[in-house]
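User: Could you check the structure of this?
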Amino acid sequence: TDLAGRCLVSLAEKDDQNYIGVVMGCTPKDENGQIQHYEFEDTDTLMRWAFTNLSYLCTVERDSPVGEVTVRLCKETDHVLAIPQADYYSIIPNDSQDSVIIEPHLANTEINAPVERGQVLGYATVYCAGEEIGKINLVAADSCEKSGWLAFVDALRKIFTSKIFLVIATIILILLFTLIGFNIYYNQKRKRLFNSKIRKQK
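Assistant: Sure, the predicted structure tokens are below.
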């Protein structure tokens, strides 16, 4: 239509990658009033620019650590590496390959063993030239077995540092000191009575 101008949606393939081009609102006539099909010229220019300046690359490699999480209750190690769950591919400008940034978002900075290899620990946001281009899960690089002894010690620590235990311990200490004080007072009183009887006998 006159309002929409000339529009064209096209599909092109290069290096096994498909590109979809969309041009809209192209002028149907040139400055002399002659009918023109600028939508074809603009699409050709657009596609050739994409073929020349864009590349489909692996921007995040699997098994490349991007963070770590502290692991408790494991005898063999105290941390586990967070790696991408899989390779992540995306189309980016050729001159922006060095500007890819992976920003990790870990669910927890510390977890308890056991940890299974491949267990999801969070996700990472992938940026290219400051623009977000995707997200990918972060998983544990290795398994971490739980130590029964460390788990037992940790259970004892939790018991001895719990509020209930501290309250009970405080009450017991108060009763103990009260009993000791009463015992000292009673012994001193008995001693005074004993000395008094001795003096009377003399």
